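Suppose you are handed only these lines of text.
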Amino acid sequence: MPRVLSQAQVDRYHADGFLVIPDAVDPADCAELRAAALAIVEDFNPTAKRTVFTTSEQERTSNDEFLDSASRSWCFFEADAFDADGTLRQSKELSINKLGHAMHDLDPTFERFTYRPELAGIAADVGLPDAIALQSMYIFKQPHIGGEVGCHQDSTFLYTEPMTVTGMWFAVEDATRENGCLWAKPGGHRTTLRKQFRRRGPSNDAGTEFVVLDDEPLPAPADLVPVEVATGTLVLLHGLLPHWSDVNRSARSRHAYTVHCVSASADYPAWNWLQRTADLPLRRLDSPVAA
Ligand code: FE2
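From them, the structure of the protein bound to fe (ii) ion can be written out as follows.
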């Protein structure tokens, strides 16, 4: 596979646990992805199902809709989206926290964006020559109500043995301190995995739980640095890197798209929450897609 990153970029990734790659994607591709995301929201009927997503309430919201979203393009609402009567406070497209978790295998625009040859090359450059596109998320970080994503390690939510989860975070819009950019701790990936998010059984009814592996706290926000990036930037994130993003208190949204990859040769325990249905198999990141 042709090399995409320079040796200096690869070294920086391994030193810091993350790598900022400006101009990784054409802003026109970002605009197309944004439109595709809004079309999915447009087609979603909020009166049928309401699934609120906040990381601090992960256990409570890990219901059927969450677990089934492994094979769907599901809409998760902001915690503050509804008033006490269950009525949306603002328009539907301004009330969604994120889409997840299979758009890359269900929507042609997401598919083209994700299975681009350069991305498989980048994954290979940082040690994943056999990357599988495990999950996709489109995060809206809405103006004024876009919620905090508490400090976490991605390997908590998607685990392989050995740990290979690698996050690919695309800025679909400019991300700044004001609208809730990522924050990360350079070198913070050289640490232990603190906890695992597990399903208690193959059936959704069994629910999910966090299993604490190490009770050492993750870094506080004051110990992290802001990762302010322009539209089209790709941020690679090591699965053990503690990262966080604040509430969006600004009037501007902060759309981002993430793909989380794992190595095909690593063991993927059956207790991972994300289990695809048989009719939608996972694919390698270097899979060909129609133009
Ligand atoms: Fe994350």
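What can we learn from it? The two ends are 20 Å apart (CA to CA). Helices lie at 7-16, 27-43, 58-61, 64-68, 103-106, 108-114, 117-125.
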